[in-house]
Amino acid sequence: MIYALALVLVSYLLGSVSAAVVVCKLLGKNDPRESGSGNPGATNVLRLHGKGPAIATLLGDIGKGVVPVLVARWLDLGPLVIGACACAAFLGHLFPIFFGFRGGKGVATFVGVLLAISPVLGLCFVGLWLLVAAITRYSSLAALTATAAMPLVGLSLDAPWPYVAAMAVMGSAIFYRHQANISRLLAGTEGRIGKR
C-alpha cells in the first residue's frame, strides 16, 4: 500500500511540471501564463512562440500522463491504483505545486493518460477530436466532445470501473476549466482553428 501511495504522490509531482513554462524558459521565451490567453498549454504557446515550442509543450504534457500510468501498470498495481495515478498526474497539471497551482486545461495530459491505459482509448479521442475539429473548426468544441465521449467509449470496451470513473473525474475537470470557452461557443465568439 505504501508503494501505491508513493506512486500516486510522484504522479502528482510529475504532473506538476509545467511543460509550457519549462520549454519557454529554456528557449528564453515569455512565460505563457503572462501572455496571450494566460493558459500554460500547447495552444497558447503555439500562438505566442510558434510550432516548435508548441510541439515540445504538447509532447511534454502528453508524456507526464503516459509515464505514471505505464509505471503503475508495469508494477501491476491494479486498476484502482492505476486510475488514481492517472488522476493525480492530471490534477498535477491543472494545479501544479511548483507553479503556484496555476496550470493548464488538461486535455493533452488526459490524452497521455488514455494512451497509457489503452491505445484504443487514446486513438478514439484523437480520432473524434480530428473529426469534430475538421467539421466545426473549433478546437475547444472538439476537445470537449471527445472528452465527454470517453467514459462511454470506456464502457463499450469493457474497461475496468476505476478507469471509467477516472475518465469521468478528469472529464468533469476539463469541462470546468473550459467554462470561458463554453461561454464563447454559446455566444458565437470562440476563435476558430486557423484564425487569430
Q: In words, what does this structure look like?
A:
73% of the residues lie in helices and 0% in strands. The longest helix has 24 residues, at 51-74. It has one domain (2-187). With 196 residues, it is mostly helical. It has helices spanning 2-15, 19-26, 42-49, 51-74, 78-94, 107-117, 119-136, 139-156, 161-177, 179-187. The radius of gyration is 16 Å and the shape is globular. It starts with a helix and ends in a 9-residue tail after the last helix. It has ten helices and no strands. The relative contact order is 0.12. Helix 1 packs parallel to helix 5, helix 2 crosses helix 4 and helix 6 (107-117) packs antiparallel against helix 9 (161-177).
List keywords for this structure.
196 residues; mainly alpha; 10 helices; 73% helix; 0% strand
Please give the number of β-strands: 0
In total, the number of domains comes to 1
Distance between the termini: 50 Å
Which radius of gyration do the C-alpha atoms yield? 16 Å
- Give the fraction of residues assigned to helices: over 70%
Number of helices: 10
Q: What characterizes the major β-sheet?
A: none
Beta percentage is: under 5%
What do the pLDDT scores average to? 92
| Bulk shape | globular
Can you write the helix and strand succession as a string?
HHHHHHHHHH
Class of secondary structure makeup: mainly alpha
Low-pLDDT stretches are none
